[in-house]
Amino acid sequence: MNQSESLALARNEELRPNSLNLVITSEPVEGPNWHSFLGEPLMLLENNWTTFEEYAGGMKKKYRQRLRKAMALGETLEKRWLNTEDYKECAVLLEHTLMDKVVVLPEDLEELLQRFREMFGDAFRIQGFYRGGELMAFISTISDGSILRAMHYGAREDAPHHTYSFAMFSVIERGITQGYRTINLGRTATEIKSTYGAVPSSNYFSFYTRNVFFKSILRVAALRYTPKKFELRSPFK
Predict the structure, then answer these.
(1) Torsion of CA 127, 44, 204, 3, to 10 degrees
(2) In the chain, domain spans
(3) DSSP code of 194?
(4) Left (φ > 0), alpha (ψ -120 to 50) or beta: where does 33 sit?
(5) Could you report the per-residue pLDDT of 162-220, keeping only the tens digit for each?
(6) β-strands 42-46, 124-131: how paired?
(7) In the Cβ-directed half-sphere of 21, how many Cα atoms lie within 13 Å?
(8) Which of the following CATH numbers is that of domain 43-200: 3.40.50.970, 2.30.30.60, 3.40.630.30, 3.40.630.10?
(9) Pairing mode, if any, of strands 204-208 and 34-38?
């Protein structure tokens, strides 16, 4: 959502003035009662290839070796598309993965995944990675027109090294082979995702409120908040 769309929401009173409303915007929103904070960027990979091999072949030697090492997990990890009855097990892995990375977790992560399925239908898919019949990790995606979006990732503590990269490369491979224009790898792990060739796209957490208490909290937050710093890599020749 861009700035004009966000302001239109306020004018149409679709936002609740006395509550704390959050809108994700591509640029800071300038206007009364708005406070915008620069978030971690979305990492986008524009698809300029027809095959995954062509993508890998365009990488510098160091990054190509890393890709091959990660993809070698395909020899020991079995890929499966998961059904709703598998979401409970996914929720356990998701909680384990996120517990030390976010301030607040939803109370019921299985319900969270179920709601994504209800909202997006068959466009929401979860791919699991098994070893010896046990679910070691999973990654979910949403097919959004010409964009393939990576969403949730969860893994066991004893998942093999490079499982995260294996999951991300699996999304990239699917995005390339199925002809998506853009592969959105999501936020977080900015530097790692840049090694896959993704580039940052700025986004802001824009809050709207007329409530005096919430406005005072946001003003204090604006004085103390510092966006995360990251170093981008360039994996292609």
Answers:
(1) -110
(2) 3-39+202-224, 43-200
(3) H
(4) left
(5) 999 999 999 999 999 999 999 999 988 999 999 999 999 988 888 999 999 999 999 99
(6) unpaired
(7) 20
(8) 3.40.630.30
(9) antiparallel
Strands of the sheet with 42-46, listed across from one edge = 78-81, 124-131, 134-144, 147-155, 182-184, 42-46, 199-201
Which helix (H) or strand (E) element contains residue 177?
A: helix 163-177
Find where tokens 């306020």 sit.
Answer: 10
Polymer length in residues for the chain: 237
- pTM score: 0.84
Q: Please spell the DSSP secondary structure of 118-168, one letter per residue.
A: HHHGGGEEEEEEEETTEEEEEEEEEEETTEEEEEEEEE-TTPPTTHHHHHH
Question: Hey, what are 234's tokens?
Answer: 């360039």
Q: How far apart are CA 136 and CA 129, in angstroms?
A: 6
CA neighbours closer than 13 Å in the CB half-sphere of residue 112? 14
Q: How far apart (Å, rounded) are the C-alpha atoms in residues 16 and 105?
A: 24
Using an 8 Å Cβ cutoff, are 18 and 209 in contact? yes
- Whether 177 and 133 have beta carbons less than 8 Å apart is answered as no
* Structure-token pair, residue 69: 């090492």
